[in-house]
Amino acid sequence: MQIAPDDLLYFINCALDGMVRIAEELGDERVNLRPDIPGANSPYAILYHCVGCTNFWIGGLIAGRQVTRDRDAEFQAQGTVAGIRQAVRALQKQLREDITHVQGDQPLAYPDALLPLQAWTKQQGVQHWRQGKALIHAYEELSQHHGQMEITRDILMHQGSHASQK
Prior knowledge:
This protein has 166 residues and is an all-alpha fold. The protein is 56% helix and 0% strand. Helix 2 runs parallel beside helix 4. It contains 5 helices and no strands. It has one domain: Four Helix Bundle (Hemerythrin (Met), subunit A), CATH 1.20.120.450.
């Protein structure tokens, strides 16, 4: 089975662009707010995590770029809409290059980078995944978090001043 890189990038970019639109809709005054729900994340933190996650899975594990990542810190990140938009646009530009390296049936470029992730992932044996599986997982994460941001936006709009800046 073959999937054209542009076909996959189309859907990756749809998810990223949708999350940027949500951040723009919320504006700087609300993008860093968290719903008043235990463990909830701000829209900014969710999108910041998506940039880190995508750089890690596609840029590092597939394309072989050296990627430094602090996953826990991603969920505490705060910033401006302009800043996260710029980060997403830089990621989208880089993905055009990264995606050209994908060979779906080949092993990951840095499988040992996945060993520390065993502590939080539900996936078993991720260090043995092939590039195609990792690429689909990266898109899965973006799709999931796009939906999470839609729900988070709706909650924040409903909660108004009851949302948390924590």
